[in-house]
Model the fold of this input.
Amino acid sequence: MSVQEYLVIWMSVMILPATLAYFITGKMMTALLLLIICAFLPPMVVKLFRRKRMEKFSVQLGDALMTVSNCLRSGFSFRQAIERVSTDMLDPIAEEFKLALMEMSYGAPIESALGGIAERMENRDMEMINSAIMVQQQVGGNLSEVIDNVPKTIKDRIQIRQSLKTLTAQGRISGMILGLLPVFALILLTFLNPEYMSTFYSTELGRMMLIASAVMECVGFLIIRKIVNIRV
Done:
């Protein structure tokens, strides 16, 4: 998806539901509230898919390094080993290595191409691999032996992440429910009984209470997220 297509979808998700709500209810504040809520949906969906892509890349990285190591032992060059990963494995790691090969074809050094993968995937294991390759090219040594030691570290880190995810699952679900329940209650009551909720939209005190509630919701969500997200 191109940037232009994403922006068109984002604007459509923002404007169409809000316009429909305005024609149905005739309330500008209801439409404005729905517009604000829908404005956050596409970035949240993109962020969710991006996180899943990065997690899948981390899981695939260990197998990719084993493939690279086997290719190096068989007499292939490092670039040929990367080509084998890009053709034999699935996305997203195959796509990222294909992009690295394309960058190297245009003259970029190996360190820069692999560093681009680490930066896009925000993967510290890939940064470690890139550093090992840079050191090997500067001082020499057996690259296959260096790469052999990395998959075990990656697998141990993945196991720790999975254990932490299991232990913090209850906290994440509780934070999600506590954060979304007031928002859904506000939307539902606004549609079911607009006159009852009109005080929040038509008076200065009501609008201030809505703003204060939104700020406290965001602060609480960030605090819970900071507690349950443990970087490994």
